[in-house]
Amino acid sequence: MVKNVVQNANDMSESINGQRSPALAGTLLRGLAVMDVLLSARQPMSLGEVAGRVELDQSTTLRLLRALEAARQVLRIGDGKRYLASPKAMRPLSLRHPLEQFRRESAHLLRQLSTQLASTVVLVVFFGGERLVLDVIQAPGSLSPYYEPWLSGPLHASGPGKSLLLSLDVETRRKLLGPEPYQAFTDQTLRTWQALSENLEAAKKVGVITVRDEFYDGLTAVAANYSDEDGNVLGCIVVTGHSAQLDAESTERVSQELSNCARLMPFQSSALRELSVFAGAEVSFSSGKARKREPALAMCNGQEDI
């Protein structure tokens, strides 16, 4: 990721007509690369360590660090020669931000679900065509499948991806998926529009979608979309586990509990209304139409969707 940011900074140093673009563009992207390094670091870093990670010379890196320090994004500690991200950078959102409020208010419900199922539970929020991991609740010995907040897994082969597709109209789905055949990750990956559409339609009818061995062999995800009180889909709840431990009976139980949890979300969190406005859920990012939950999901009878 850091290398990509630095490359973008170099690319933006010239405009389409060969003219130099404003120096701020390159400086900003290089500064973001420095922040990426510090935010992913497990301990304070020296100037040389930061420069090595961002692939810049030390004098340039030092100027960036000093500018970020002046902006209160970076701290110098110890002998003044080691750097780390500031509290402002690590927790930029206000504690009253809709995302933070929603995470706190939903934590008890998700923790109960994780304990009941002895599985990892992941809370995902949709922003247009993107997926943000807001929280991960683990039971002892359960999986920890997500490491980055911004999910980039395949829409056609992941639980959060298929959940997002279910919340969208057909035209938007096709646009996001791109041309066929879709990339294969395992022998179980659905690679054609017809196969994926049939899978999504079947899921819509029962309010459940299960992704078994489609992204990783041996791993299964089951997800349910949750909505605000007006039926706007805001995200999904995902339960993950080993495929060997999720036979038909176990999957049915997971579906029942997960579906119940998703239906309770509007009653559990008063922040959903503000989150709906913040995430732009009332207007779809592509069509300008409200992104409503499908009828089968709105009146889900103990099944769930992923």
Number of helices: 12
CATH topology grouping of the largest domain? Beta-Lactamase
Which CATH class of the largest domain? Answer: Alpha Beta
Head-to-tail CA distance between termini: 28 Å
Low-confidence regions: 8-22, 284-290, 293-306
Helical fraction equals 40-55%
Strand content: 15-25%
The largest sheet, given as strand count, sense and whether it forms a barrel, is:
6 strands, antiparallel
Q: What Rg do the Cα atoms give?
A: 22 Å
Q: What order do the helices and strands follow? A: HHEHHEEHHEEEHHHEEEHHH
Annotation, overall tally of beta strands: 9
Kindly report the average pLDDT value.
85
- Tell me what the CATH architecture of the largest domain is: 2-Layer Sandwich
What does the overall shape look like? globular
Helix/strand class: alpha+beta
How many domains make up the 3D coordinates?
2
CATH superfamily of the largest domain, please? GAF domain
Strand line-up of the largest beta sheet: 6-5-4-9-8-7
What is the oligomer described by this structure?
Answer: single chain
Q: Can you tag this structure with a few keywords?
A:
306 residues, alpha+beta, Arc Repressor Mutant, subunit A, 2 domains, six-stranded antiparallel β-sheet, three-stranded antiparallel β-sheet, disordered C terminus
Describe the structure.
The chain folds into two domains: 2-90, Arc Repressor Mutant, subunit A, CATH 1.10.10.10; 98-298, Beta-Lactamase (2-Layer Sandwich), CATH 3.30.450. The chain is 44% helix and 17% strand. It is built from twelve helices and nine strands. The chain has a six-stranded antiparallel sheet with strand order 6-5-4-9-8-7, with helices on both faces. The radius of gyration is 22 Å and the shape is globular. The protein starts with a helix and ends in an 8-residue tail after the last helix. The model is unreliable at 8-22, 284-290 and 293-306 (pLDDT under 50).
